[in-house]
Amino acid sequence: MSRHANSSGNDYSANDWLDNHHAIKSRIRAELVHSLPIAAGSRILDLGCGTGNWTFMLAEKTGHTGNVVGVDRNRETIAIAESKRKLHYLRDSITFNESEILQFKTSEKFDSVILFNAISYIRDIGGLFSVIRNLLSPGGSLYIKDSDLGTDFFWPVDVNLYHNAMCEIEKYAIDVVDGYDPFCARKLPKYIIENGYTITSTISQSHTFVGPTDAKEQLYIRENALMISEFLKKIGHAELSEAWEVQFSKESIDNIFTKHEFLYSMTEFIFQAKLPSNS
After folding, report:
1. What is the pLDDT of residue 133?
2. pTM passes above 0.85
């Protein structure tokens, strides 16, 4: 099983990994949910909901008259989400379901379908959009968010090393980690348009760190950097992987976090899409 995999085998989906990311980015995530044109009382479907971090934020957006359904394939993850739900003041407006996204079925229609950091795991893109088409109410919106490893910016690093590492990873992209596509965001406009949807709005959110960073921030940044070294190992570039990893090592007295000019930034891309009215 690869780094940060959950019990279903999804890489970068372990509960502690997801919760650390959510904690570090909680402020900008709250700002994102606040900015979404989702009305009170809306019916929301959160596909690939994990432990419910987004689900609960969406429930607070829709209020007690709304209804939010979270779906995830991992039994352990759903159990954690359900335990959180029981203690939440909007618990009667939230439901969790254990299901593969492509196999999820319900007679209910939703005003909005949320797909945050989930499409990068799905290979049957056409099947995914077909499932969503059957779940959306007429005039409903699809919100897709994902990241792209190519937008991660680390400084100061060996520029030639970074260039060589990214070039090698891009050659293998979608097959690097059991179907996880680290360059998913750049493909989202193509996926959306090819499957008959119209993009109605776009948002990008960058999260930037400068030194000095605390222990939790360093963990978050280091783990993102180690994704690159892990990808390199998987495609047979152990030497390149080791050279990249040492720049972030806690054992190295010359690691990136000790530099006065330290800077790290990552960007996520959010697309709102709708089906044409005649669909």
Report:
1. 96
2. yes
